[in-house]
Amino acid sequence: MSPRHFLTTQDWSRAELDALLAQAAAFKRARLGRQLEGRSIALLFFNSSMRTRTSFELGAHQLGGKAIVLSPGKDAWPIEFDTGAVMDGEAEEHVTEVARVLSRYVDLIGVRAFPKFRDWSVDREDKVIRAFAKYATVPVINMETITHPCQELAHVMALQEHFGTTDLRGKKYVLTWTWHPRPLNTAVANSALLIATRYGMDVTLLCPTPEYALDERYMAFARENAAENGGSLTVSHDIESAYRGAHAVYAKSWGALPYFGRWEQEKPIRDAHRHFIVDEAKMALTDGAAFSHCLPLRRNVKATDAVMDSPACIAIDEAENRLHVQKAIMAALAG
Ligand code: CP
């Protein structure tokens, strides 16, 4: 039988997500435990990280477990993912062996693998983590691929703490695109849509043009989530009406999906929307909204110093919560 994985929150019921958040809150009150005594997790990073690596490694340690960090292609062998590939290129081994060997050593496998940014129709298949989930005989945790479910839980936990309630229904939630000099992953934006609608908020996706809408898979999930949980989903390109009356503003930059592989054509559109920066004037339109971002964040590009340093900013709380929610996830999967 295939083990239970944590690849997307859509695979987990609201009751299960609520239980993870309750356990995370317990870990926040009392950090140390023995839930991973004698257990281990391999953390595979195909891309850079600061928060994810630190919080997973430390979280495993705080629960009595051991984390082993591997960067395939750097300190571990490059891996092939295509079935039937004639491996006469860079890759020295195939994921079928890597996943099964690691499963003999460790109790959990975490994977971070961003899109390649050349062809969204390929990237949206999430080939790397799906292959690990297929061949591993231990649970696999998504540490960010085309969604970022650990960030989702940390985010909703920070919102619940900020509002002093686990019931977020009726809150106006704005996910705003912001400018960045490079096209970035849509993972956190996809995840924000999933979790905000899952918790019944009235969600506005604010982006420059229709081309910045997220993948229809996540738009459809978000519409279903909203219908099931008493919220709503609206797409807007109007900054003022989107911000007006908001209770929460979440910022993220991403590349427009139709322009994958031809980014020089997207650049003029992106560069015409630098004014999507989160600043004091926009926040003044809200109903005293909380502001957050997954981090890392370029100050005075995505959000101003004044917004980042204001009491409304809960980004540091959200980053801290990564530690607590990931301990809850590891404990649940390895238990
Ligand atoms: N938010 C987040 O995942 O941070 P890192 O990229 O630093 O891990």
Q: Could you walk me through the main structural features you see in this protein, from its secondary elements to its overall organization?
A:
This protein is an alpha/beta fold. It has two domains: 9-147 and 322-334, Aspartate/ornithine carbamoyltransferase (Rossmann fold), CATH 3.40.50.1370; 151-319, Aspartate/ornithine carbamoyltransferase (Rossmann fold). Helices cover 41% and strands 14% of the residues. The chain has 13 helices and eleven strands. The chain has helices at residues 14-29, 51-62, 95-105, 120-123, 127-135, 149-163, 187-198, 216-229, 239-243, 263-271, 280-284, 305-308, 315-334, and strands spanning 40-45, 66-70, 79-80, 93-94, 108-112, 140-142, 172-177, 202-206, 232-236, 248-252, 290-292. The strands form three sheets. It has a five-stranded parallel β-sheet. The longest helix is centred in the C-terminal third of the chain and has 20 residues, at 315-334. The radius of gyration is 20 Å and the shape is globular. It starts with 13 loop residues before the first helix and ends with a helix. The site of phosphoric acid mono(formamide)ester has 9 residues, from helix 2.
